[in-house]
Amino acid sequence: MSLSTNGQVAVITGGASGLGLATTKKFVAQNIKTIIVGRNEANLKQTAEELGELCSYKVCDLSDLNAIPALVQEIEAEFGTIDILVNNAGINLKKKFEEVTDEEFQRIVQTNVNSVFTVSREVVKTMLPKGKGTIVNISSMAAQYGIPYVIAYTASKTAIDGMTKAMAVELSPKGIRVNAVAPGFIKTAMSSKALDNDPERKAKVLGRTPMGYLGVPEDIGEAVYFLASDAAKYITGVVLPVDGGNSIGF
Fold first, then answer.
1. 83-135, pLDDT tens digit by residue?
2. Nearest to 177, CA basis, from 186, 165, 188
3. CA 53 to CA 47: how far, in whole Å?
4. Closest C-alpha to 140, from 177, 97, 191
5. Which residues form a coiled coil (predicted)?
6. Domains and CATH numbers, the chain
7. Which residues of 127-145 are buried (b: 16+ CB within 10 A; e: fewer)?
8. Catalytic residues, which ones?
9. Which neighbouring-strand residues pair with 183?
């Protein structure tokens, strides 16, 4: 079922792997022209080739904020419009709090917060003249409650939640909706390896997840698509947990 997204143009950062790839596949299946952005050209190219003419790619290191305005201008010049932006690209660091260096903290914030702000600002400039558009940010359960050893990531995703609400209040009167999705424990190659090697942690994860099992990347893609579509036309400023109830589990 297409929810009024036929022929629209979307930009997905980090759209060639993980949750971003699941979202890219969902968008393409719904006839959305999708431009994926990232650093790894080989992955981007392979994804675009596999998904066909509705998927294109642009190579950009989003931590280089100075490169972002030209990137957005290039996309607009080539595709004419940007209807949907999904800020998915992000990096993590697992390390004891007292061992995290200033440089490491700033590196996480640069990619996970600063680049999201800059990409959003530049894309919004293209949306304002049309008076419509939608942005979906990818948050995390780390912003919902404390998780040890990921202080920089937690700070960055908490910032995303605040930015989502502030952007929504300012931009929604101008026709631009802004929401976020907060994934829970999702079954990926990386998470499976980590949990399978730590039975105690896996039991804790599943024990506080009321639905009793891990999500899959497609669950995130479906949620992002819903928030980007007209089915969510009266929804803005929300941070939607997609976590099997983990964030409310006891």
1. 999 999 999 999 999 999 999 999 999 999 999 999 999 999 999 999 999 99
2. 165
3. 11
4. 191
5. none
6. 9-185+216-242 (3.40.50.720)
7. beeeeebbbbbbbbbbbbe
8. 153
9. 242
